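Materials and Methods. Structural model of Nitrite reductase/ring-hydroxylating ferredoxin subunit. The 119-residue sequence of Nitrite reductase/ring-hydroxylating ferredoxin subunit from Pseudoduganella umbonata was retrieved and submitted for structure prediction as follows.
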Amino acid sequence: MAAVLLCRLEDIPDGASRGFDPHGEGRDTVLVVRQGGTVHGWRDACPHYGTTPLAWRKDAYLNAGGTSIVCAAHGALFDIATGVCTLGPCLGQGLQRVELLLTPDNDIYIAPQGARRPT
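The predicted structure was written out as tokens:
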């Protein structure tokens, strides 16, 4: 599978999140959180029920302080960097990572399968 362009880094404000529908499924299936020059990608599905979307409205994936990803259906909190549930009914479970590539030109792509995340 080829890399899929999501957006440019500046399209997501620092400390904010955004949902994407990269495969035309009619709903956001991927969420991206920006922390400075770092982006974290996750499948938009709570592990408590597997397919439950996380956001309570478009692009609203973070708690009020912007420190955690929140599942609006269950109130579960997830660490932005690791995806691990830190509070709620799925404690210890985690979100499914979506590997991203950030180019030198600040384009954000879903990485092709088998690609390694830059270190």
